[in-house]
Design a protein that fits this description.
Blueprint lengths: L12 E5 L6 E6 L1 H6 L2 H9 L9 E4 L4 E5 L5 H15 L6 E5 L4 H14 L17 E5 L5 H22 L7 H15 L2 E5 L1 H6 L3 H7 L7 E7 L7 E12 L8 H4 L7 H16 L4 E11 L11 E3 L5 E3 L7 H13 L5 E6 L3 H7 L4 E4 L3 H14 L3 E3 L4 H5 L8 E2 L8 H10 L10 E5 L5 E2 L9 E2 L4 H10 L3
Parallel strand pairs: 1-6, 2-4, 2-5, 5-6, 9-10, 9-13, 12-16, 13-17, 14-15
Antiparallel strand pairs: 3-4, 7-8, 8-10, 11-12, 14-17, 18-19
Bound molecules: ligand BES and zinc ion (2 copies).
One zinc ion (ZN) binds next to strand 9.
């Protein structure tokens, strides 16, 4: 497979310095700050109708200053403006730019992260890459913000790794490729990696996972990465849906809905990105990353609607729709994950189109049985700059999963509330003692971006990486 080395190296080098000469200087201004800038600048702005609207940009040739408008100086606005800045100056014929930092740590971090995340674009398959001359962006400040820069670099590298893998076309990223990426990641960062093949899945009785994978010529793999520090008092287990392609199976998707289904591995790729970040940040917690890597295809050997599967947990499932495959793979992976005796168990998945209908394409859904845990995660997500919202379980929706022939059906009998019924389906595989330790995050909305927004370029966003890393770091202390 072609995995660009860019994922490892951020293109633009960001540095924190006292001062330095550079080709241009960037000023972030709101309408109030604009009034306080030197007269000559204001005159040029007036001439060109620049009024510092959010994201509005003007370049003053004489003084080599780039003015960028901002709504207000909140971290969310600053992060977004960071991405807008880098996208704009990459088009200019310059090598370096400088920008005055903020006195506040969080604001500086937001600016750095916005710049680094906004710099990514998927160009691995372009035969003539549009080149930029830009090499360095300097944040002017004393070096007391070096640790923010380090964290921003780690988060950006990890998010971009997830983005790069998700963007890789399905023929070049089959389950075995995901397993190889995980093995390389483990080697590079000295963490453990175990790969389970079909024989292993059979031995583990992961029959739902196997059924989904049956029709593909590309064998499934269970990936298990572990970061185990010398001292640790908590164990976190992450589980990612890694469907390298989802055709829908025999309940075939219409072609308009099938395109972008290379992104159905986003949950699994987020787990890989998170494991990279964790192995660089080295917190005092044990973190495991499990990815169910599989391809949902059609063919003479395909699993069928009406099949009944015995899952690893022993629960029987009637297949009513082969396009509800992610929950089948996850059911067996969650079962495996609970054997590790986690203190927290979090799954990430592009699970339902219904979640996109419910929350819009910018927001992920947070589900689970523990209100306090969901609240805690929602706060961690919000601080990280990702949009996530809780979706509530209830017993009436749960009833809709009843099956006449098996313990549970893989789809709801109603067309409404599909994100929640999918979450409730997963809940059937969470043992009582882990119910309060589990979170399900449906990232179907933001995982793949059709039109760029915030710090996200077109294509994969790396959804989930920032929130989960932030959540894990927030457990410290
Ligand atoms: N991978 C899809 C969910 C999805 C849809 C992700 C759109 C990203 C964007 C999932 O496997 C699926 O097909 N779900 C079905 C469930 C239905 C059959 C109950 C869906 O959402 O339509
Ligand atoms: Zn599907
Ligand atoms: Zn799917």
């Amino acid at each position: 497979m072609r995995l660009s080395s860019r994922k490892e190296n951020l293109m633009i080098k960001l540095d924190v310095l006292n001062d330095i000469g550079s080709d241009i200087e960037i000023l972030i201004v709101d309408s109030k700050a604009l009034k306080k800038t030197p007269k000559a600048l204001i005159n040029t702005c007036n001439l060109q109708n620049f009024c510092a609207k959010h994201g509005e940009v003007i370049f003053i040739q004489d003084s080599k200053k780039l003015l960028v408008g901002i709504d207000n100086f909140s971290v969310d606005c600053i992060r977004e403006i960071g991405a807008i800045i880098v996208k704009n100056i990459k088009k200019m014929n310059i090598i370096s730019a400088k920008i005055k930092g903020f006195s506040d740590r969080d604001k500086n971090y937001a600016l750095m992260l916005g710049i680094l995340l906004g710099d990514y674009s998927f160009s691995t398959y372009k035969t003539s890459e549009s080149k930029t001359s830009l090499r360095n962006i300097y944040i002017l400040d004393d070096s007391k913000f070096k640790s923010e820069l380090e964290l921003a670099n780690t988060i950006a590298i990890s998010t971009n790794l997830a983005r790069e893998i998700v963007n890789t076309p399905p023929e070049d990223c089959v389950p075995l490729d995901l397993a190889n990426i995980a093995l390389n990641l483990a080697k590079e960062h000295s963490i453990k990696c175990k790969i389970g093949d079909i024989k292993f899945l059979k031995k583990e009785k992961m029959n739902a996972f196997l059924a989904v994978s049956k029709a593909s010529i590309n064998e499934p793999r269970l990936i298990h990465l572990s970061y185990i520090p010398k001292t640790s008092n908590k164990r976190i287990v992450l589980v990612g849906k890694g469907l390298t392609y989802d055709t829908g199976g025999l309940s075939l998707k219409p072609s308009d809905y099938m395109t972008t289904m290379k992104a159905d591995k986003s949950g699994g790729c987020a787990v890989l990105g998170i494991m990279k970040a964790i192995s660089m940040l080295k917190p005092n917690f044990e973190v495991h990353g499990i990815v169910g890597a599989s391809e949902n295809m059609i063919g003479g050997n395909a699993y069928k609607p009406d099949d009944i599967l015995y899952t690893r947990e022993g629960v029987s499932v009637e297949v009513k729709n082969t396009d509800a495959e992610g929950r089948l793979v996850l059911a067996d992976c969650l079962s495996y994950a609970q054997d590790l005796k986690p203190d927290y168990i979090i799954d990430l998945a592009t699970l339902t189109g219904a979640c996109v209908v419910a929350l819009g394409e910018y927001t992920s859904g947070i589900m689970g049985y523990n209100e306090e845990l969901k609240n805690k995660f929602e706060i961690a997500a919000s601080i990280s700059g990702e949009l996530m919202a809780k979706l509530p379980f209830n017993k009436h929706l749960e009833k809709l999963l009843e099956s006449k022939n098996a313990d549970v059906s893989n789809i709801s009998s109603s067309r409404y509330g599909g994100a929640i019924t999918a979450g409730l389906f997963l809940g059937k595989f969470i043992r009582d003692e882990y119910k309060d330790k589990w979170l399900h995050i449906d990232i179907a909305g933001p995982a793949f971006v059709e039109k760029e927004w915030d710090v996200n370029p077109y294509g994969a966003s790396g959804a989930g990486v920032r929130s989960v890393v932030n959540f894990i770091l927030s457990l410290e202390g």
